[in-house]
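Handout, tutorial session.
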Amino acid sequence: MGSIGIEKLLLLGIALLIFFGPNKLPELGKALGKGIQEFKKASRELTENIKEGATEEEKKS
């Protein structure tokens, strides 16, 4: 797999600018940030639940 270089990021940025326009990009960025934040929160909670379940199982043994 290839890595994402400056050229690809620049091309992606230009495509987003053309597709969404300059007025929508801040809203799009904010929504993307919130989505990533929610994903990380859910991932943390799931990890904590799994660890708690494993600890409870160890106590039962």
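The second record follows below. Compare its token runs with those of the first.
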Amino acid sequence: MTERSPRHKQKDHIMSHHEPIDFSDIAPYSDEVFHNKMEQLVKEPGFHHALNYTMPKEDVPVLIDELLKINNKHDFQFKVMFPFLEMLAKTTTSGITLGGIKYYNPSLCYTFITNHRDIVLDASFLNLAFLRRNIPTSEVAIGNNLLIYDWITDLVRLNKSFIVKRNTGLREALEAARKLSAYIHHCILDKHESVWIAQREGRAKDSSDHTQEALIKMLAIAGEGPFIEKLKEINLMPVAISYEYDPNDYLKVREFLLKRRDPNFKKTQRDDLFSMETGLMQFKGKVHFQLTPRINTRLDQIGDFTDNQRAAKCVGSIIDQAIHRSYEIFPINYIAYDQLYNTKRFRRKYTDQQLDESLAYFERQLDKIELPDITAEERTYMREILLTMYANPLRNKLKTILGGIE
């Protein structure tokens, strides 16, 4: 299932209602144009700046020489991205683990749908976990709002990403959704490539993860037959991602406070770039991916709906339950829950040392928030938001396991 097998020679076109759809503006670059695009990329000053930021300067010319010898996406992922992600895992995590591998069938292609914690690494680290086990990597959905520079667009499309067009007018949005849906079905059914997509646009700022109904509806635009049959066609597999520490936690808290002060507050592109850098380079502790069974059997059980809105809500709920049930809960999550609700319910789940370390971590993160005139009341508010972020995965897991009772 590598990029170079004959079936990948086809163009990114698909026949739909007798009209060909041209995916060339959103699909990953084909191997035919790979080398040309790479030659252009390595000349970009922004790309050089990013390399110098993430690796020792003396290694950059060596890497660029290596990049120019690569002619396809498979080799790029294996020879360059694999070692780079291993380096990142080694320096910024306490280890990346993958569970639920028994649910993965090598003869199928999947739409991996996950909760969304980190802008760049959710999909990258999942692909790293796959590369380690010789499982084919997935194509990755990435919002064009993050593609701030042309060279970033080129880099992600060389690395098997496809573009989700956002911030368009209503008519363009409908057209973009139709094309995106057709492309995902095309990937699974024709290209025989798995895809990764987050369960919602943007990260869940409070770490309470819920699938957007609009996303489910988009996935069911293309395909054959009724709504549920179209979803079965793309083998949805929910995957729960758990980070012990979220390096962006204090930036999210800062955003909550700024929105509280001014409801019209909007992040800048610079804020997004800083979030991407922080997520990439700062410490994340343990990272766990839990695969869960694809939901086709559950979809058969719920049957067909006359109303797509209700169908999308029901499918979203199936995905949410799978993800919530499968979170890895770390000591910091138990501690945050007990602190937030002023209880000792999970006291046996952590040691005194873990309690002290976590409380010190929370205060350190809050100290990083540099805003003018933070009052004592605002500090309390920010602490509560931070604790909520770390308590929510446990809250959602409890609700799912205990059937709505916390």
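Points raised in discussion: The longest strand covers residues 236-243.
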